[in-house]
């Protein structure tokens, strides 16, 4: 009974803060390295802005990562996906390799087993505004860690994950801001070389808002995060580049112009292996984000009955709709429908209890 009352109270709170309606529209971020090809797709409210996208790092084994920001110019809320890179460490270090240098596609760094400590060490390096921020909260996220483990293949290695959220507080232009940085660290120990640990952040992102507004903004920011997808044509090129890296370490492509020529020359036609990898990526992302979403109050799970898939959207609305183009429309008024406005086809989503 107490849990049920708590759920009702949370939904009522979300409803009180929700606007009468919310429209989320697709946004496409292009990659100059692939001839300005669409690379990342996401949904944001009308009027929001974005910057960044794909960051190519041919010297690293993951070859490319995401570094992007989507924000509300009017309210100060923002989502930031931070770039990630793989690390490696062995007992006593890597012989003849200095700490901080890149060895076979991974940066040599002693293992940081606590994701909260990792956030406090790395996030200020990636986002200078956090260098003098105060840490006001640290929370472990075990369900998110399990979701990351379950969505990752082993390939002969023993995997374990740990996840955490750290809340920073700082003043910016006279306004007190709060920023929650989320991270899941994945550790892989080789069964043939147990003294060597390959480790990396599998998720590294932040939600930011004015102090007192972050909990209210988090459901929308998580929805935007959950919508981030690689374009399948772009992913095919990325997949081939990673295969090529495994064969050559991409040494000839460290020059940006050479990298662009190589990527632009790749075929758009997806190989069966690339298609399978893309589907695995979508499944792993969905599983991990559902795990992280379990710690965000004010989310409602919906299902599209026509094209069966589930999506987490902000709670507090009586109905939700999805268009064929990937837009979402949420309304507190059950008599308001997006149908009939132009030629766009909308499907009403079903609540998942």
How would you characterize the overall build of this protein?
The protein is 28% helix and 37% strand. The radius of gyration is 21 Å and the shape is globular. The longest helix has 22 residues, at 272-293. A hairpin with a 4-residue loop joins strand 14 and strand 15 (309-314). The chain has one domain (34-293). The strands form three sheets. Strands 3, 4, 5, 6, 7, 8, 9, 10, 11 and 12 form a ten-stranded mixed beta sheet that branches. Strands 13-2-1-17-16-18 form a six-stranded antiparallel beta sheet. It has helices spanning 2-17, 115-126, 142-150, 214-227, 232-248, 256-265, 272-293; strands at 21-31, 37-45, 49-56, 64-71, 78-81, 87-90, 102-103, 106-108, 134-140, 157-172, 175-190, 196-210, 229-230, 299-304, 309-314, 319-323, 328-331, 346-348, 350-351. The chain is an alpha+beta fold and 353 residues long.
Descriptive tags:
7 helices; disordered N terminus; 19 strands; single chain; six-stranded antiparallel β-sheet; ten-stranded mixed β-sheet; alpha+beta; 353 residues
Helix content: 25-40%
The biggest beta sheet is recorded as: 10 strands, mixed
As a whole number of angstroms, the C-alpha radius of gyration is 21 Å
Summed over residues and divided by their number, the pLDDT gives a mean of: 87
Distance between the termini: 16 Å
* Tally of separate domains: 1
Tally of contiguous helical segments = 7
Poorly predicted runs are 1-17
Helix/sheet category = alpha+beta
Q: Would you report the number of β strands?
A: 19
- Overall shape: globular
Strand content: 35-45%
């Amino acid at each position: 009974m107490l849990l049920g009352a708590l759920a009702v109270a949370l939904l009522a709170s979300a409803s009180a803060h929700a606007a009468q309606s919310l429209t989320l529209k697709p946004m496409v971020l292009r990659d100059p390295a692939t001839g300005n090809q669409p690379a990342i797709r996401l949904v944001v409210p009308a009027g929001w802005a974005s910057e960044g996208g794909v960051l190519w790092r041919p010297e690293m084994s993951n070859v490319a990562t995401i570094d992007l920001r989507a924000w509300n110019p009017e309210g100060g809320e923002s989502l930031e996906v931070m770039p990630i890179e793989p690390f490696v460490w062995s007992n006593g270090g890597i012989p003849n390799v200095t700490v901080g240098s890149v060895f076979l596609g991974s940066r040599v760094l002693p293992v940081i087993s606590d994701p909260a400590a990792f956030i406090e060490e790395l996030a200020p390096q990636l986002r200078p505004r956090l260098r003098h921020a105060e840490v006001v909260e640290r929370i472990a996220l075990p369900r998110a860690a399990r979701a990351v483990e379950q969505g990752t293949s082993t390939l002969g290695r023993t995997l374990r994950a740990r996840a955490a959220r750290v809340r920073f507080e700082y003043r910016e232009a006279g306004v007190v801001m709060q920023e929650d940085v989320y991270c899941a660290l994945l550790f892989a120990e080789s069964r043939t070389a147990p003294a060597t640990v390959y480790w990396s952040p599998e998720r590294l992102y932040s939600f930011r808002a004015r102090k007192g507004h972050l909990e209210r903004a988090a459901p929308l920011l998580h929805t935007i995060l959950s919508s981030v997808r690689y374009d399948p044509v772009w992913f095919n090129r990325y997949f081939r580049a990673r295969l090529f890296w495994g064969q050559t370490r991409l040494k000839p492509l460290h020059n940006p112009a050479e990298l662009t020529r190589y990527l632009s020359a790749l075929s758009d036609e997806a190989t069966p292996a690339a298609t399978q990898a893309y589907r695995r990526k979508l499944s792993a992302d969905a599983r991990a984000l559902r795990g992280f979403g379990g710690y965000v109050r004010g989310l409602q799970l919906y299902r599209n009955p026509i094209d069966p898939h589930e999506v987490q959207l902000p709670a507090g609305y009586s109905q939700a709709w999805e268009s064929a183009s990937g837009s979402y429309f949420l309304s507190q008024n059950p008599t308001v429908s997006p149908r009939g406005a132009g030629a766009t086809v909308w499907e009403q989503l079903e609540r998942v209890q």
